[in-house]
Design brief:
eight-stranded mixed sheet; 15 strands; Aspartate Aminotransferase, domain 1; three-stranded antiparallel sheet; Aspartate Aminotransferase, domain 2; 404 residues; 15% strand; alpha/beta
């Protein structure tokens, strides 16, 4: 009998945010076990709601949303995004430079497909958001991971970036604010990253989906605002800032030296046209969401849910012997380190599975974010503080006996 196997293009593709450990959690749930899922940044699952005016806009727009929009997106949506780019001081952005998408994930895939030939290299941080690595491989390219330094607030290691640039390198990815570490990059660091792209003539891909989820008085600086002479693609959306992951609303903005990327932009337009358009009801809320009341601000100040949950998880993790964590400044993830000598760690997937099976709590192994050593886990701190305390108590009890 003829059998069918998966494509060889998938050999280097992984997405452990929904990977083998999650498969085990699903199996357990199907057998009646309740699992606390700290693996995915889905605010709706933890009681966060979209602003009322955003939901009302979606409802009102449904009647007129049956047809396709312009492939780049509706005029009102792109106009609002253009004004948002102006507020972020991104220079030279026109309506033609903006593309809406079914979330940022679709646009990452589209923009890499339009660029990469077999063997072309893209510099991607380690740890990364695994979509970047997966899409690079699916596009025929090679993901080259540069290190982010835990001892320096998880900032990218500029020396490591320089060492890994080759004649095949076409672009450099930054994720700022960062998933999974919660880092927010300084102006000085961003200027140095832009300079690397300038000197080596690289495209700068800047994933900024968490740019409105900042704590401790941090300010977000868009890398493209510092790079008027470097071709940049900036990605953002509403999934996290407006708690509407399921609406799938994202966008990308082209800026900088567009003349150098004229042929590449033609490829982006071709692929954008082929998928017709992003979902029109989702586009219809962009203008209200960006221009209206920003409810996320209430969550990220002292007394707000995300801020207080961050405080609880940070203190609890650092109180466990053998565990240390850098305090996140943004987003809603923390990326703690587990002492590999104390716990004899050689396999972080096994660690996550052992913890899941014993304590019914689901974490994501650091290797799922292409981190090179098996001693980190990503934890989502969206649950309420009492749930986080319960989860970290279980972790402390588990680690008091665990040796791999």
């Amino acid at each position: 009998m003829r059998t069918f196997t998966k494509s060889d293009k998938l050999l280097n593709v992984r997405y452990d945010v929904r990977g083998p450990v999650v498969d085990e959690a699903i199996r357990m749930e199907e057998n009646g076990v309740r699992v606390l899922r700290l693996n995915i940044g889905n605010p709706a699952a933890f009681g966060f709601s979209a602003p009322d005016e955003v939901v009302m806009d979606m409802q009102t727009s449904l009647i007129g949303a049956e047809g396709y929009s312009d492939s780049r997106g509706m005029f009102s949506a792109r106009k609002a995004i253009m004004q948002y780019a102006q507020n972020k001081h991104i220079p030279g952005v026109t309506m033609k430079d903006i593309y809406t998408g079914n979330g940022v994930s679709e646009l990452i895939q589209l923009s890499l497909n339009a660029l990469l030939d077999t063997g072309d290299e893209i510099l991607i941080p380690a740890p990364d958001y695994p979509m970047w690595t997966a899409c690079t491989h699916l596009s025929g390219g090679k993901a080259v991971h540069y290190l982010c330094d835990e001892k320096s607030d998880w900032y990218p290691d500029l020396d490591d970036i320089e060492k890994k640039i080759t004649p095949r390198t076409k672009g450099l990815v930054i994720i700022n604010p960062n998933n999974p570490t919660g880092a927010n990059y300084s102006r000085d660091l961003l200027e140095k990253i832009v300079d690397v792209c300038r000197r080596h003539q690289l495209i700068l891909f800047s994933d900024e989906i968490y740019d409105r989820l900042l704590m401790d008085g941090e300010q977000h600086i868009s890398a493209a605002s510092l790079a008027p002479d470097v071709f940049c693609i900036t990605y953002s959306g509403l999934s996290k800032s407006h708690m509407v992951c399921g609406y799938r609303v994202g966008w990308m903005i082209l800026s900088g030296n567009k003349a150098a990327a004229k042929d590449y932009i033609e490829g982006i337009n071709l692929l954008s046209n082929m998928r017709l358009c992003s979902n029109v009801p989702g586009q219809s809320i962009i203008q209200t969401a960006l221009g209206g009341y920003q409810s996320v601000n209430e969550y990220v100040v002292p007394g707000g849910r995300i801020y207080e949950q961050r405080e609880v998880i940070f203190d609890a993790l650092n109180s466990i012997p053998g565990v240390s964590a850098v305090k996140p400044k943004a987003a809603f993830y923390i990326f703690p380190r587990f002492d590999p000598e104390k716990f004899h760690l050689t396999d972080d997937v096994r660690f996550a599975l052992d913890f899941l099976r014993e304590k019914k709590v689901l974490l994501v192994p650091g290797s799922g974010f292409n981190y090179p050593t098996p001693d980190h886990m990503r934890i989502v701190y969206l649950p309420r503080v009492e749930v986080l305390r319960e989860a970290t108590d279980k972790l402390a009890d588990f680690l008091s006996r665990y040796r791999q």
